[in-house]
């Protein structure tokens, strides 16, 4: 009995040591360099994020503005890059005349002087709207950007033309697989080297279509994120990378990161070897997904020397933090 116990103990210790050596970040090569910064919506007006739902009119709960940039405009994206972003995120919808418009909301009612579902309108009509019309920080007493956003809603092709050598993250706002096929056609028409600088995320159905039709474009969806992280936590100690983590954009809430085998360096290396890009988000607490790394306190929770991706709504502040 004593020999059996000693053998079992030795076996358990050997397995534990093997798992440790296979996953410790201390023995993993460290990728030097600064973090890769992703500016969510470029530079945008911030809003009260408490109890925000998919249909919340965020322009009507804007915080007192500290700048005059409006999200999803060429001016906002350019400012994001100039502030230090490596990648800028933008939102798209198809239009009735075959374009993709860059705009966040499912309808134009909240943010503009128009009405109706965004994807049920022509680009020509959308170009006539004032995208700054609905912004207010005092419950509707004043509208500081009203009249200043006319004609500023761009097409996706205009974004490509304005930033031909910049990395972009495209957010598909629907659950429509047909929309994914339309966007895949747009991406397929781009040179291969340009496609490699673009990532796409959104609803499961359109992302599945894009992943199938443009396999060289890195993608993710809510289902893919969950599958990737849960499966990796489950068996990533073996060194195997789940299929949902491959050729993907891997979003990691900062409070979930310590649960990932080999975090940070070995995990980052495994994802890089799988042609995936990792971006850390703010803490996830259930319900809707987390926000960005937007404060110095959250930035300080990143591992020392971290060189992976950071998703932020405050690109200027986080770019300054990353230089320190």
From TrEMBL:
Pfam families: GDPD. InterPro entries: GP_PDE_dom, PLC-like_Pdiesterase_TIM-brl. Residues 52-322 form the GP-PDE domain. It comes from the Bacteria. PROSITE patterns: GP_PDE. This is Glycerophosphodiester phosphodiesterase.
